[in-house]
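User: Fold this; tokens only.

Assistant: Input:
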Amino acid sequence: MPLFILFDGIKIYIYFDDHLPPHVHAMYGEYEVLIDIRELTVYRGEFPTKQLKKVLAIVKKNQTEMLALFYQYNPQTRP
């Protein structure tokens, strides 16, 4: 599971052999949330509001690159 970015104690990962929808995993302390890359929405999990806003901003800023990496790491999910 390659680490995409680490900032303010938040880690964002894109996993190998993962499932649809295309998403990233964000971790902060005991919290974990899955963010749908295309929709910029929480797919599963919970996160503190302040950190969630930061994660969503990072995903939005890097949306194209994250989506490309998700499909590269998970070619079986490519449309």
